[in-house]
Amino acid sequence: MSMDYGLAGQAAIVTGSTSGIGEAMATALAEQGVNVVINGFGDAARIEHDRRALEERTGVRIVYHGADMTKPDEIADLVDSAWREFDRLDILVNNAGIQHVSPVEEFPPEKWEAIIAINLSSAFYATRAAVPIMKAQGRGRIVNLASAHGLVASPFKSAYVAAKHGIVGFTKSIALELARSGVTCNAICPGYVKTPLVEAQIGDQAKARGIPEERVVEDVILAAQPNKSFVEYPHLAGMLLYLVSDLGASTTGASLAIDGGWTAA
After folding, report:
1. If you average pLDDT over residues 139-146, what whole number do you get?
2. Collapsing DSSP states into helix, strand and coil, what is residue 51?
3. Which residues, including other chains, have CB under 8 Å from residue 97's CB and lie 6 or more apart?
4. Is 160 part of the annotated catalytic residue set?
5. H-type helices in the chain, by residue range?
6. Domain boundaries along the sequence of the chain
7. Residue pair 159/116 in contact by the 8 Å Cβ criterion
8. NCBIfam families per the record (predicted)?
9. What pTM value is reported for the model?
10. Catalytic-labelled residue, pool 5, 125, 160, 233
11. Most buried among 95, 118, 159, 259, using CB within 10 Å?
């Protein structure tokens, strides 16, 4: 039996929510009766099909906004559109992100700029636009998707690690600014989640290394996770629902690891 988190009728934005973790987060909120603005790239027909299906299944309003997370004006319009659509904004989930892996001396500058823009700066621009609305309401919840890489580092991921460490610091600063406003700000720091992108990497790594996929999972992908298990979408959704509900009212400025023990050492 699912738990009622008391969120029905609220309004949320989830960036990067047309696939993967963001889609799971948007779905979890919709299933709790939250009207959601989804955002992200992908095939327009598939996005519309999924939007309509989620709306019909949950009975809430699901609105798509195609803001480019590298463009501050479009991010501001995303937030403004949500407020115009629902006359409120209760939840902002800054989830949009991309990745590139390369030694620093070979790291393409355009990839660095894109990762910093999408993984870090977009959270600033969305938060900047959302905070006045939430302050006026006297309540709001901002949840930033960081990563275990916001707490520890790995080689060849300089831009991603820098951006995710930046998200953790940004979260703390915003939490302190808003501590008496009724608005909280927290970060979720997942380990490896079996997203479509990661699933593709498993097959590619198996071919490149000439080893079975199960060995790739345990010895390569999940090498840093002591439990040797992928983080599952419901684990992240459960943390999100706690943070955005009244249960999470005293949790702010936290960076919450859901990583199978990765950052415990």
Report:
1. 98
2. helix
3. 16, 118, 119, 145, 163
4. yes
5. 20-31, 44-58, 72-86, 109-116, 122-137, 158-177, 196-209, 213-215, 233-244
6. 11-191+231-257, 194-230
7. yes
8. PHB_DH, PRK12429.1
9. 0.96
10. 160
11. 95
